[in-house]
Design a protein that fits this description.
Length: about 500
């Protein structure tokens, strides 16, 4: 049986023919694949749940999956929904209509955690009035011991808690939750595994997320991700290409390759394969589509990768390259392993290769412990120099167990917020300048939905991830079109169809 990645069906691991000669012979150094026997076991549990649901409910029971955080979580939730769909669940956005509510949580900042606690707490009344409803929590937040303890003690109405390394065991865990009177906690603290062949129910039929690797080895001193997602492990090019081709043949037009640090893709494979090589193999796949990727780490971003971006026609000219801080002392304390100068060198090389076509975005942390206003000003000046089209800016949030959380942090939150506002004023000016460069240009754009500027406007995305809104017929949604920019605004371009 071949792979099928957009179907609510379990697929055999004994994958049929190899899809690409060059990609066919890669092995994992240490196999971390969930084996076929385990997946068969999960499929059996899935069938058992189907029988339980049929005997308990006259109508298709509904599940509500609530996702917080990054695209990796969105992708995990698509697998969770795939497995639930195979069991016989339908879906709802309304929590109080659901027989099963799953919160897929994020641990990157405190704010995200607070929202989860608030939203889960709000379901207590519903659960107590409807004891047959299952409330489940999963994702990065659950992988932290102090959080799991808090759920155990203070949220006793939660039935099922599972970690990031056992998503594929959802059928078995849900079966236990449905049939036992005990609460189920499954939170192994391991380096991580890869489960191929899980069912996937994608949120969109033109735009897809495709994880190429999992975990992170970088241990940036502020970040909880390496502790909750385990070590870096790459899917083989064979599996990535197979899923990719499947998506293209199903009509997906924008495929985003995902990893915490895609630039270190393939270092754990035998023989090693670089991310640039993978991009070239995907670019060679036939069809009309666009490849995006995130996130890149400046310490592993090679000149070869930038050259590959520039030369591959289907690879979007959008580089999301987080620099976090523009000050070398702070970068060192963050354990980022590059300097302001080496970052700018990479950016300048990318600009040299791709010119105005290139769009740059970045992540920034303001108020890292011990950061002074003068050091923050280095971040400010880097933003000024960079010319990013947009930025994702965060105030530092201490995370339990990370080295940064043990450092002195004398600057108040209010003061850090002031710094952040200064940065945002600057970025607004920079975004407007970047947008103004594009007045009168024509771009090949992917029309992805309805616009916000006017009722009858559609929204499209350029190669560089800029949004152009234009007047057009709904039937254009899901296709590539040439659109000419008529008026650049600060965050969006207005345009018109040229054909
Ligand atoms: N506090 C604030 N921002 C953080 N990020 C990661 N950890 C923290 C933290 N403890 C930000 C970084 C990263 C993005 C995904 O989240 O900028 O690139
Ligand atoms: Fe966190 Fe750094 Fe890994 Fe990104 S690269 S997930 S910021 S540790």
């Amino acid at each position: 049986m071949g792979f099928c990645y957009n179907n609510a069906e379990w697929v055999s691991l004994s994958r049929g023919k190899k899809t690409n000669k060059k990609a066919g012979d890669f092995m994992r150094e240490k196999t971390k694949l969930v084996d076929e026997k385990e997946l068969e076991k999960q499929k059996d549990f899935s069938d058992k749940i189907t029988s339980i649901l049929e005997s308990r409910y006259t109508e298709k029971p509904l599940a509500c999956v609530v996702t917080y955080g990054c695209q990796q979580n969105v992708s995990d939730s698509e697998k969770i929904k795939g497995m639930l769909s195979a069991m016989g669940y339908g879906f709802t956005e309304k929590r109080t209509e659901a027989k099963l509510v799953i919160f897929n949580t994020c641990a990157v900042r405190e704010h995200a955690e607070d929202r989860v606690f608030g939203n889960v707490g709000a379901l207590k009344k519903y659960k107590l009035a409807n004891p047959d409803v299952i409330i489940a929590l999963c994702g990065c937040m659950m992988q932290q011991k102090h959080i799991a303890e808090k759920i155990k003690e203070s949220f006793q109405f939660v039935d099922l808690v599972f970690g990031t390394h056992v998503v594929h065991k959802l059928p078995e865990l849900l079966f236990k939750a449905l049939t036992q009177r005990k609460r189920v906690f499954e939170l192994p603290d391991i380096d991580g595994v890869i489960a191929e062949g899980l069912p996937v129910k994608r949120d969109n039929d033109k735009k897809a997320w495709l994880p190429i690797m999992y975990g992170c080895n970088n241990f940036c001193s502020y970040c909880v991700v390496p502790y909750v997602r385990g070590r870096e492990r790459s899917r083989t090019p064979e599996n990535v290409i197979s899923e990719f081709k499947e998506l293209v043949s199903e009509g997906y037009k924008e495929i985003t390759l995902l990893g915490q640090n895609v630039n270190s893709y393939g270092k754990d494979l035998q023989p090693k394969v670089s991310f640039a090589e993978l991009l070239r193999m995907l670019n060679d796949v036939e069809g009309d589509f666009r490849i995006r990727f995130m996130t890149s780490h400046p310490k592993d971003c090679t000149r070869e990768l930038l050259e590959t971006m520039a030369s591959c026609d289907k690879v979007a000219k959008h580089l999301h390259l987080p620099f976090q801080s523009g000050n070398n002392r702070v970068l060192k304390a963050m354990n980022r392993c590059y300097t302001r100068e080496s970052y700018l060198e990479l950016i300048n090389y990318a600009k040299e290769l791709m010119g105005d076509e290139l769009s740059i975005t970045s992540d920034i942390i303001v108020g890292f412990p011990g950061e002074t206003y003068e050091e923050f000003k280095d971040t400010y000046s880097l933003v000024d120099e960079l010319g990013a089209t947009s930025l994702f800016t965060f105030i530092y949030s201490p995370r339990v167990g990370t080295p940064a959380s043990k450092l002195d942090d004398p600057i108040s939150y209010d003061e850090k917020s002031k710094w952040l506002r200064e940065l945002l004023v600057l970025q607004e000016k920079k975004s407007a300048q970047q947008m103004a460069l594009h007045g009168g240009k024509t771009f090949k754009c992917f029309v992805y939905g309805h616009g916000k500027t006017c009722d009858n406007y559609l929204a499209a995305r350029t190669d560089g991830n800029l949004i152009i809104e234009f007047e057009g017929d709904e039937g254009l949604i899901g296709s590539f079109r040439n659109i000419k920019v008529t008026e650049p605004l600060t965050y969006v371009l207005l345009g018109e169809l040229t054909e």
